[in-house]
Amino acid sequence: MTALFALATSLLWGLADFGGGLLTRRTPALTVVVVSQAIAAAVLGVIVVATGGWSEAGSQLWFAVAAGVVGPVALLCFYKALALGPMGVVSPLGTVGVVVPVGVGLVLGERPGLMQAAGIAVAVLGVVLAGGPQLRGAPVQRQAILLTLVAAFGFGTVFALIAEASSTVTGLFLALFVQRVVNVAAGGLAWYASVRRGAAGLPDGGLPWRSLPAFAFVGLADVAANGTYVIAAHHGPVTVAAVLASLYPVVTALAARGFLRERLRAVQAAGAGLALVGTVLLAAG
Fold first, then answer.
1. Exposure letters 71-105 (e unless 16+ CB within 10 A, then b)
2. How far apart are CA 36 and CA 32, in angstroms?
3. pLDDT band for position 228 (cuts 50, 70, 90)
4. CA distances for 58 relative to 7, 64, 65, 164, 172, angstroms
5. How far apart are CA 150 and CA 16, in angstroms?
6. pLDDT per residue as tens digits for the range 113-141
């Protein structure tokens, strides 16, 4: 069950990143984040009311609040890094954040077997290669590297925090709702500050209302991915769940190949294959 839900997390996050990437081609990134998360928060609010999720309120929700603060900061650092440095370097480097939840699992006493340890190493290498690491070409600014590492460890921290935010299904809905509300608040403040500094808050033609289904898909897929990750982490080793859930760059690359006809470089195809081998080793272990 851990492998199944963790792989579902990768699928959902990969598709959400692909959809978000398409939207940011014509809409400012902060606007995409705020609108998609606001839609997700509204849907989750209805679910929380319908399921009586408020009865699960407790001290665990502070983990959701923290995840809601860290998430937008990590995302903004990642977008800034993409603007400063080559995507072929920034994207695969952003996956190193998996060491945070894996480290938490090890601190809590988890000890993966030999096959699982091999699977973790192979899968992480596969994810890095699937990002198409750019080993030659334009030099990368130190600021881009620093921002990417901050973003990576921020994403990894969200992994660890959201896994501790609930212990029941109804509590999970409430935790995800709280996380999304904080996401919208933090993202909204960043959006307002950006506009005050003169940046464009909306496209020239205003908010593309015809794209609302796409915004909804991005926000809801992201929420669903958080939910499936929590289930995976609660039903098996966090070290396994975190690595399998970090395969989403492979999904994004394959989606670009399938929908946009982008050609996979040889290193990306090899990375996807290694990620698959790592997944099999983890599941078998």
1. bbbbbbbbbbbbebbbebbbbbbbbbbbebbbebb
2. 6
3. very high
4. 29, 11, 12, 12, 12
5. 21
6. 788 788 778 877 876 676 666 555 555 56
